[in-house]
Design a protein that fits this description.
The chain has about 625 residues and is α+β, with helices and mostly antiparallel strands. The chain has three domains: about 10-200, Histidine kinase-like ATPase, C-terminal domain (Heat Shock Protein 90, 2-Layer Sandwich), CATH 3.30.565.10; about 210-330, Ribosomal Protein S5, domain 2, CATH 3.30.230.10; about 435-605, MutL, C-terminal domain, regulatory subdomain (Ribosomal Protein S8, Chain: A, domain 1, 2-Layer Sandwich), CATH 3.30.1370.100. About 35% of the residues lie in helices and about 20% in strands. It has 20 helices and 23 strands. The strands form five sheets. Strands 5-4-3-6-2-1-7-8 form an eight-stranded mixed beta sheet. The longest helix has 18 residues, at about 165-180. The chain is globular, with a radius of gyration of 30 Å. The N and C termini lie far apart (about 110 Å). The structure holds adenosine-5'-diphosphate and magnesium ion (MG).
Length: about 625
């Protein structure tokens, strides 16, 4: 029998190897960003089109490559990072296998421009499906720019296997954040289609975390620091009361490389023992420095799992240093499980079965009614829909009594009111007295003194909780428009609206997508006016573009928050007595009356003693 075994051609071998390293656009992003870091860049820009399916571009200001290196970099097992097997145990770089570029080039169309600082001209190289198409001199600045186009163009099965743009974008964001967190001293930017998702200046770890996860993160961080013979640990854990219901912000970095480890995760989790509510995941950003001799990175193609020499010791060091930090910063004693933190999932989304949204149309709605009431100080639509009824007062008192046992000890004074202060005594019953100050605050007298409520923030909170309930529980009423409202949006915005359509339906929006860039809105929530719709939608979209929520709850939360913020009565609006009372009433029926959804104080209390002091 004749010999039948032959060596596979390079491009076939590379395509096979690519299967391991490059699973999706996010894998390309990871490899390119890591190469930029290895090239000592101080500034790295990532640009992505259509979730990386069309284009992934990374531009850095690192060392660049010579003409020969540029060509060689695409060969399999071509690397400048190690020379012998021994070097595997003193790795300081992200890459070392020399596989990534060969793999990426085998399954996409790559364009490379690169130039070392000292050279006059740079090199441009075009490769498609592993075949070099051209190599020539070019003008370019110091560093390297990669364009990776049409990933998997020659492997349709893989391309079809990719998930929706939203999912693939999320994966890219994850990889981007991991590299950006591991290297706070490098500046990064990230644009998706035409929108800027991240702009991160070079800084320290704490500030980098805040820049990525938002300004409020700063106060939630507890520093962790420990130095032992085996490892040096530095970083932050999130205070337990801010722990999330979704596994999101959990990061281990070993020698500036993001890694996954269930075992170490367990160590951190166990140091939070007794401090977390059920099903809450603590956040952590922990950087371990370990002698490269003591770890093996070469056990997984994407290098996100590594082997430690002494895992058990590491477990206990990690556990005790996190415990120590939590103790030192006095986390445990002040923890109060009864208290609503305002950041918890207010409704039980996780256990809610998926259901097709039902739409209730208010057939009795009279669109002309609104016009007739338009100028009568009722511009705030909230009150068109809901008139306070006498029964509400009982609830308020019941609620306040309950609250008396909780943190804040006060009660709205319920002395018999003459009724003259209010528009209608029947409506008010024996409710609290209120008046408005500077068209901004609602003032009321309470047992211990005086209560001042910020009307905008209070209404923001009320609407937020109501919307959240509408989205997660019961669909809101919808008022049908006589003539559809026609709004135009850009393509990505329309896609975003499409993705939010379920939740929008639940809040009372009815809309159809028409050809081109137009949607026709045929129904809107009863609590908003037609004239406000366009601005609300625009705000909603821009919030979503900037924040890219990573879970179902975050999405719902962001939607409720954006709509509520747009709909809330503003400072400067005059409120009728009944409206002031309705706000007071509804605010204290909220789950978290103290803080607005953006964590700002809703009310302050001036006690009688405070006043007495002023008269001293
Ligand atoms: P590895 O990173 O494992 O060495 P790669 O295939 O990712 O393998 O890259 C091959 C080589 O190309 C690298 O070793 C490096 O010398 C060079 N290279 C890749 N990206 C860059 C970059 N952004 N700047 C400078 N050199 C680069
Ligand atoms: Mg590499």
């Amino acid at each position: 029998m004749s010999d039948i075994i032959q060596l596979l051609p390079d491009n076939v071998a590379n395509q096979i190897a690519a299967g391991e390293v490059i699973q999706r656009p996010a894998s390309v992003v990871k490899e390119l960003l890591e190469n930029s870091i290895d090239a000592q860049s101080t500034s790295v820009h990532l640009m992505v089109k259509d979730a990386g399916k069309t284009l992934i571009q990374v531009v850095d200001n690192g060392s660049g490559m010579s003409v020969t290196d540029a060509r060689l970099s695409f060969e399999r097992h071509a690397t400048s990072k190690i020379k012998t097997a021994k070097d595997l145990f003193s790795l300081q770089t992200k890459g070392f296998r020399g596989e990534a570029l060969a793999s990426i080039a085998a399954i996409s169309q790559v364009e490379l421009k690169t130039k070392p600082e000292a050279d006059e001209v740079g090199t441009q190289l075009k490769i498609s499906g592993g075949e070099v198409e051209s190599q020539e001199a070019c003008v370019t600045s110091r560093g390297t720019a990669f364009k990776v186009k049409n990933l998997f163009f020659n492997i349709p099965a893989r391309r079809n296997f990719l998930k929706s743009d939203a999912v693939e974008t999320r994966h890219i964001i994850d990889e981007f954040q991991r590299v950006a967190l591991a290297h706070p001293n490098v500046s990064f930017s990230f644009h998706h289609n035409s929108s800027e998702l991240f702009q991160l200046p070079a800084t320290n770890l704490r500030q980098r975390i805040v820049n990525i996860f938002g300004g409020k993160t700063n106060e939630k961080l507890v520093p962790v620091q420990e130095e032992t013979e085996i490892a040096k640990i530095e970083g932050f854990v999130g205070k337990p009361e801010f722990a999330k219901r979704t596994k999101g912000e959990q990061f281990f970095f070993v020698n500036n490389r993001f890694i996954k480890s269930n075992y170490l995760n367990h160590a951190v989790k166990s140091s939070f023992e007794g401090l977390l509510k059920d099903k809450a995941y603590p956040s952590y950003f922990l950087c371990l420095k370990i002698d490269p001799k003591r770890i093996d990175i070469n056990i997984h193609p994407t290098k996100t799992e590594i082997k430690f020499d002494d895992e058990h010791a590491l477990y206990s060091i990690l556990r005790s240093s996190v415990k120590h930090s939590l103790g030192q910063f006095n986390i445990s004693p002040v923890l109060d499980f009864q208290k609503d933190s305002g950041l918890d999932t207010p409704y039980d989304l996780e256990h809610k079965p998926a259901q097709t949204p039902k739409i209730d149309v208010d057939r009795n709605f009279n669109p002309f009614e609104k016009e007739s009431r338009g100028n009568a100080g009722l511009a705030q639509p909230e009150f068109r829909q809901k008139q306070s009824n006498p029964g509400d007062w009982k609830e308020l008192y019941a609620d306040l009594e309950r609250k008396e046992h909780s943190s804040e000890n006060f009660e709205i004074e319920s002395e018999q009111v003459s009724g003259k202060l209010f528009s209608s005594q029947e409506e008010m019953g024996d409710g609290p007295k209120t008046f408005q100050l500077h068209r901004k605050y609602i003032i009321s007298s309470i047992k211990t003194g005086m209560l001042a409520i910020n009307q905008n923030r209070a209404h923001f909170r009320i609407l937020y909780e109501r919307l959240l309930k509408n989205i997660t529980d019961e669909p809101a009423l919808s008022q049908q428009l006589l003539f559809p409202l026609k709004l135009t949006f850009s393509k990505p915005d329309l896609e975003l609206l499409e993705r939010m359509s379920d939740s929008l339906l639940q809040t009372g929006f009815l809309f159809e997508e028409k050809e081109k860039d137009e949607i026709h809105i045929t129904g809107i929530p009863t609590s908003i006016a037609e004239s406000e719709v366009e601005q609300l939608m625009t705000e909603l979209l821009s919030n979503f573009e900037n924040q890219v929520p990573n879970s179902g709850f975050e999405k719902t939360d962001l939607m409720a928050r954006s709509l509520a913020k747009g709909m809330a009565i503003k400072s400067g609006s005059q409120l009728k007595a009944s409206e002031q009372v309705a706000i007071l009433n509804e605010l204290f029926a909220c789950k978290e009356p103290k803080l607005s959804p953006s964590n700002q104080k809703i009310y302050v209390i001036l006690t009688a003693e405070d006043l007495d002091k002023k008269f001293d």
